[in-house]
Predict the structure.
Amino acid sequence: MSAAAVRAGAVVVGGVHVFADTRIDRHAAAIAAVIDPAFLAEAGWDPTRKVLSFDPEHPLLGRPVCRAAGCSTSAQAASRICFSCCRRLAERGLGEDEIASLPPRARQRTGRGPDTCVVDGCRREWESASSGLCRAHADQLRALPVTDVEEFLAHRQTRPLPPCAPCAVAACTRQRRHPDGLYCGAHQQRLRNALACDPHLDETRWRAVEPAIGRGGEVSLRGLAPLVVAELLVGLQQRCRINAVKTDDAVLRALCNDVRHRQVSSLTHYDPGDDRDLEFTGLANCLIGHARRALSSPETEVAQDEWDLTVFGHHGTVSFTGISQTWLRESAKRWAADDLPKRRVRPGRRTSAGLTVRHHIGCLVRLSESLCMRDDRGEHPAALGRADMEAFLHRLAYLESVGQISGDARIRACREVRAVLARIRAMGLTRPGGLAAGLGEDFVIGQADVPAEPEPAEPNRDLPPEIMRQLCTHLDELTSPVMRTGIELAIDTGRRPEEICELDYDCLTRDDDGQPVLIYDNHKANRPARRLPIGEQTAAVILAQQQRVRARYPHTPVGELKLLPTDRRNPGGRRAVTGFSLAFAHRIWVDRMPVLHTADGVEYDKAKIVLYAYRHSYAQRHADAGVPVEVLRELLSHRKLETTSGYYRVRDAVRPARQPHLAASPSAVGFRARPPRSRRGRRPVRRVRRTIQRQGRRRCLPVPVPLRRLRPLRHRRLLPARSACLPRRPAAHQRTPARGHRPR
Ligand SMILES: [Zn+2]
Ligand SMILES: [Zn+2]
Ligand SMILES: [Zn+2]
């Protein structure tokens, strides 16, 4: 059932498995149709009682249960002993470690709160746990000449009784205390307290909004609109199936109580507010998001003014409401709908696609604001021309001058508006009858209109060698083996943080000559399974981590394991740590170190020590070792030499090794720390090149063919790689190496 069909008023059959009373509106029924009966069984949903009863053993919905014999109360404390059993222990003078010798409870209890009366066949709830009798039978016991409950149960006048009506509080799952009363015992007491506080209490409203009496593992959805019930259930289902995160029954209960208290008609109208804790807000936003998406698809989403990008496989939302001109707003939507499918998605990972689209739309909002200054508010595309575009460009210049946007943002705004307008034209939207029909030919941003970009600064993000040395002496202070491995690999291999995090368990292999090679995915440039020659020391770090991972996840197939599994929501070891958590652990580690000093004795700014700086340091120490720029480009997995040149400076003082050797670092800072004459364990450039080249199409060739451009250069200085002419004239340096590559 699509959302459009629901809005169109289609007749709906369904929801029988969710609701005992199927007289519900079409929207609720459509959502109910999305709910899997298997999930409802898993979550212990009772359609008649409208109560969820989670199995304590459920991996995501379960709860810790008291260790005492015959007790099934929730026990959140580290000792796993509930409050009441703690008291029973204390009464008997026993310690927590003697829980096994605690006698079982007199009566088996399914949880806190009343169970049914112990009289055979009686369907009323007991009044007190000690006697186990309902109120009527307790009164009868006192009237009869019997001494104890056993005798009473066997008495001929003892008859089972029909259940009392349910408590008048909408949420309550209990029976009325007395057939003539309105409430259960607990609610009777609560009402008395509420009336004492506020004598003018509106009792009808109180009945509607008062929470149920909490019971471990149970969540009452009574007293909520059928639509809200369906939304909560579908949200919980998707949370378990898609997010695979734990849900605490107490937090879910609190959320349901708040939703009931505000009497919202749909979960999508609910706002958790700012004064709630993270767990509550996280759960609420998760369920609201899933409820909203329950009926949406890319086809329905593009008709809205706010898009949930999750529907398109990306992250976040994008809003078009800031664009006031109809033609521009609709054209922007068409552009976004055209652009999103071209962007890469990564299962289970955030992508930057949403950010990019949001940024483009943000620039169009600025254009829209500028067009609003016209008398016709820019509503007619045919009336727009060069003067309007100039006004927009002036506006951007003004915004930069008053500091509202940065110079970089101004350049990006020009480029992005230029790109969107060009795409709109290419899609034919400016043709007669199109969304932007007749848009002026001169309503464009030319290449010359984009302000010139400043020259990039000289690369200097690498860390000085003495700082690297000091960092390495503190490696032992990293207590988490996963984080330590991640940081050591970042220092050793110069891979990007997200490439380190995403390493597979079997990321280590050997070349034909037995030398270790790291296999990683360059996600940024979409180049999977790259090969990087590494040193034996680095290989040993990986091997040790592999052993730890295997010991921790002995049952997961090796091919599905990650080298750096996260601690959170990761029962099978298939999820890796995020770049964020690795960076967080790294930041804490660096901040805890004593003050770091440069060679001049000056305090070094710790803010510069970020994970990405190790990539720059890697490039710089290879450049200093005389590695040719083309080889370095391959080592860094760049497509363009210009990119590589942004990673190192040419240093006159450093004398490169006669024959460059790579990736034989005995330690993380080995390249710099080791005296240059030691050659032990180094790898000739030719072998390194072969290792790198054995990927992509070349893998199917019988013998690796060396790239012509990758010949080691014999000149003493490295070329500042800005000169794009270098790869185009590969023969030049072979004949006259010194002249062809003199730095400018
Ligand atoms: Zn207990
Ligand atoms: Zn009874
Ligand atoms: Zn009640």
Strands lie at 45-46, 51-53, 218-220, 306-308, 317-319, 508-510, 516-522, 527-533, 661-662, 683-684. Residues 167, 169, 172, 174, 183-184, 186-187 surround zinc ion (ligand 3) (CB under 6 Å).
